[in-house]
Design brief:
By secondary structure, the protein is mainly α. It has helices at residues 17-24, 29-55, 59-76, 79-93, 97-125. Helix 2 packs antiparallel against helix 3. 30% of the residues are buried.
Length: 126
């Protein structure tokens, strides 16, 4: 009998702790948490839009959303997200559908893990 291989998608993520610390510096805990919460919610909403653009085969809108999301992620210190957003842009502009689909799936996994990492860092810096 053949053995079935199971692939695990364990995305390594990078968060710029210095960027998170800059967000928190000089602010009350409540203010910093609110800034991070609004930023993360905005990023998650942008990723949902990116999925819709991909499903609708609207490449131009997908590229615009990925660029905007990459900038948002950089402001929040979500380094891995920004890198993968650039990969998605390149795959989409090259009209490489399999690569774009795989990269978008990777981006969705990273946003979930990055959100958790931001919350962990926020707790450590405050």
């Amino acid at each position: 009998m053949a053995t079935l291989a199971v692939l695990r998608h364990d995305e390594g993520i990078r968060v710029d702790a210095g960027r998170v610390a800059m967000i928190c510096a000089g602010r009350s805990r409540r203010e910093a948490e609110e800034i991070l919460r609004r930023g993360i919610e905005g990023l998650v909403a942008r990723v949902v839009r990116m999925q819709r653009h991909y499903d609708a085969a609207d490449r131009a809108a997908l590229v615009r959303s990925a660029r905007f999301a990459g900038r948002m992620a950089d402001q929040l210190g979500m380094t891995s997200f920004g890198i993968v957003a650039q990969d998605l842009i390149r795959a989409t502009e090259a009209e490489d559908e399999p690569a774009a689909a795989a990269t978008l799936a990777r981006l969705l996994r990273i946003v979930n893990r990055s959100v958790s990492a931001i919350h962990d860092l926020r707790d450590m810096t405050m």
